[in-house]
Amino acid sequence: MALRRPTIFRTHTSQTPFLNNVPLSTGEKNKLLVSHGRPPWYGQDGKPLTDAFVIGIAGGSASGKTHVAQEIVRSLDSIPSVIIMSQDSFYKEHTPEELVLAFANNYANPDAIDMPLFAQCLRDLKSCKQANVPIYSFTAHQRMKHRKYLYGANIIIVEGIMALQDPQLRELYDVNIFVQCDSDLMLARRIKRDVAERGRDVEGILQQYLRFVKPAYDNFVAPTARQVIVPGVKNSVAIDLITTHVRKKLSERSFQFRDKLARADSLVHIPTSPTASTDNLVVLRQTPQLRGIYTILRDRETSREDFIFYSDRLATLICEKAMELLPFKNITVRTPTGAIADGKDVKMDNPIRQICSVTIVRAGGMLEMGLRRVMRDVAIGSLLIQSDPSSGEPMLLHSMLPSVVQRREESGDAWVFLLDAQIGTGAAALMAIRVLLDHGVTEDHIIFVTFLGVPRGGMAVIRKTFPGIRFVCGAVDDGLEERWLHNEDGTPGRRVWSITPGMGNIGDRYYM
């Protein structure tokens, strides 16, 4: 099948790569760059709707592939989130015998690259899952033991000399780019880079270049020039055209659903009785003590000191109830008197490792003290999810998950307490749940812990879509009211949904 005639651009200009006015490091690769946050990549039902947009950039060694990738990021300006992933991380692991001949190894051959692992990592990232990318040391000529965790990008830029060579990779790209550069300039850049960054001498670099790099470029790299060819790294016309195309594709994939969640009918039964519970919703029994705590927390005249004290006390009660949803097994122990007593223990191989918590920042942090009182050594991660100022839609700004969740081979056995102060529209809750599912946490291993829930709206949608997820609420309120925030100058701001009677802005009352 004949290749489509490539598009070639031939104008030049000089610019410096920045992201939000911060210079991008020219030497750093396999990096997640975040601008104003990652918008929802899933629909109202929580199912992923779109893959990440993937750009493949190939070219000769030291042709400027990384620079072109950074220029694309800079030109995108207010991009949601971008991953720049380098082929250099996927060179194969060497045996001790191969390490002796390290400088004689042919790194410019497709066989030197672990293409199946390269394609699998890219496939995972494209499908909005996490990937643990290898780290290769050109100084030690060996793949390192630890890996680089990557997750959460709308755009993935893959760069490497063989980035367009393998069919497994090409089928994952939305755009293919080839960076052209004169051979003498590439050699000069390679000598400068390898001496400074990889500890090599000039003679060894020249021998490797003439023996391996130049023949490999002619045989494997140059024939992959297709679709879009960028002559030179300072080609503003090419970069502008590429970024315009990317923005168009991203805009086609955008969608909003917070209002739909807020207005959703009760798709499943949610108890409004203060003592009622169902299979996947547990509401604390409304004892006089508990109702007294909620009365203090709802009172607008309650001092900040009292609000913090009773919030921490309530968090302990709710987290103790949530612990009951973990799997337990029967055991026997010997008491100090020598007698045998029947008891219970968590039914897990390594509960300290498997049980963890993820806080939806900021209000979810109010439950951490209570969880620590129940499980002192529990690992706690966080998700920073904020509303977009213009649309009100949730935006994922930062994720710092426990290591057991980050590792695909362990995440299926993890039990996660997901913490947030309240669930109204459920937009932030749905995003946090989607992040955990993307990492391989099973649905029935997620326990959502919260002070307040609403018997309609987002919780109804989440419980119907993910019936395996269980919610532990201190209480349920029956109102979700549409309101408008005002700007500092008194003009109408964005629309919000408030729980009524509710507890007000819980985060502000606790932290400010």
UniProtKB/TrEMBL annotation:
Listed EC numbers: 2.7.1.48
Domain of life: Eukaryota
GO biological process: UMP salvage
Limits of the Phosphoribulokinase/uridine kinase domain: 54-227
Keyword Transferase: yes
Swiss-Prot/TrEMBL keywords: ATP-binding, Kinase, Nucleotide-binding, Transferase
Segments forming domain Phosphoribosyltransferase: 286-511
Pathway entry: Pyrimidine metabolism; UMP biosynthesis via salvage pathway; UMP from uridine: step 1/1
Keyword presence, Transmembrane: no
Family statement: Belongs to the uridine kinase family.
Protein's name in the database: uridine/cytidine kinase
